[in-house]
Amino acid sequence: MRTLVVLAFVVVMSGRADAYPQWQLSRDITCTGCHLSPDGGGLLNENGLVTAESAGMLGHDPAFMYGKLDTPAWLTLGGDLRGATGFIQTRDPDVAAYPMQGELAGAATFGAFSVHALVGGRRPSEGESPLHVVWSREHYLMWQQKPGENTGAYVRVGRLMPTFGLRLAEHVVYTQRYGGRQLYTEAYGLAASYVDPRFEVHATGFIHDPIATSIEHGDGAALYAETRIGERAAVGIEGKYTRSDEQTRTFGGVTGKLYIPGIELLLLGEAQLIRQHIDAGDWNTNQLAAFVMASRPLPRNFLLDVGIGHFTQDMRVKGLYRDALDVNLHYFLSSHAELLLTTRLEHLGGNGPTGGYALGQLHYRL
Q1: Which residues lie below 8 Å from residue 361, measured CB to CB, with a gap of 6+?
Q2: Contact 139/159 with Cβ under 8 angstroms?
Q3: What value, to the nearest 5°, has the Cα angle with vertex 104 and ends 176 and 28?
Q4: 112: closest CA among 73, 74, 144?
Q5: Is a pLDDT exceeding 50 seen at residue 12?
Q6: pLDDT confidence of 119, banded at 50, 70, 90?
Q7: Beta-bridge partners for 75
Q8: Count of CA atoms in the C-beta half-sphere (13 A) of 234
Q9: CB-based contacts of 71: which residues, under 8 Å, 6+ apart?
């Protein structure tokens, strides 16, 4: 049961606002169609603001602070606030409420170059001073081959998340939590991307943050490449290598996306094989993480996601696995406010315990 408690703790104490891959293929063929970042997430461009406005029930101005704050054309501002409350079932049922996210984002653009920063709060790790409650998860300099457009080459240098996998907003999905894109694995790196309507490629070399406490303690590289099959499907391959003082981890996997326009259904899938080598005892383990999700918009500004996840912790040990059923119901009240009911039913091993949660979230985009 301890693992279920840890899972629930991670769910409600952590958060980040990434893109919804549910909009790719159904709204735009690339993530850069709506976002400034070449791999999606974070600040929205003009088309992204229009998409946010069309998704919401209320027709509020989608710009930062409803457009009430006059900013120069070279400056883009944004941010996210998120909190959760609900029911958690482990050994004993519990009800709790937690803050999840409070961050401000900004990008200053000068021709082909732009400076990006994301600043917010976090819980200080044990032994850290109260000053560590404020930090910057991302801050980098970006060069873009075609300023003002959403295709071409991008180069970023600074603290960023290496591009890998589906890049879901739901960080508790097994391919994210146990795979190559765990929450708070931002690192200092050099990232090169090329985005085209037909394909995209992202390569990142990185070193771990030697100052701030980070989940990523290793140095390495990540690669993600995706090719589109027409305008309604895409397949991708992914790889990541990270080496720390204690262990070496190697990730390899595939992704798939298929949009069925007649019924407005988007299918997403990802599978990863993970090789972990721990130096102490010269111990190796092979792991498997997989996730499939079906997503469909519903009437009155609702969006329903249903996903199934699997994680095998050690492929040599029978019964050492977990399965999860996730059901998320989004309600886009406006271009800034989202209500989310996120639920999970999780089972550990063959005769292991079963637990779950049902949490209500409020996400407000500044």
Answers
A1: 82, 83, 84, 100, 338, 339, 340, 341, 342
A2: yes
A3: 55
A4: 144
A5: no
A6: very high
A7: 108
A8: 31
A9: 64, 77
User: Distance from CA of residue 111 to its chain's centroid?
Assistant: 28
What the block records as the tokens of 178 is 């146990």
CA separation (Å) from 123 to 42, 78, 126, 212, 260?
21, 22, 9, 12, 42
CA dist 273 and 288 (Å) reads: 5
Dihedral over alpha carbons 26, 27, 33, 34 (to 10 degrees):
-120
Q: Can you read off the two tokens belonging to residue 340?
A: 């989310």
* Nearest one of 192, 101, 90 to 144, comparing CA atoms: 192
Give tens-digit pLDDT for 31-48.
888 899 999 888 999 888
- What confidence score (pLDDT) does residue 40 get? 85
**How does DSSP classify residue 7?**
H
Mean pLDDT score of the chain, rounded to an integer? 88
DSSP class of residue 55 equals H
Residues 6+ apart with CB under 8 A from 337: 56, 362, 363, 364, 365
- DSSP for 123-177? PPPTT--GGGGEEEEEEEEEEESSTTSS-EEEEEEEEEPPP-S---S-TTSHHHH
Task: Judge contact between 323 and 308, C-beta under 8 A.
Answer: yes
Amino acid identity for residue 172 in this structure: V
CATH 2.40.160.10 fits 2-126+133-365, yes or no: yes
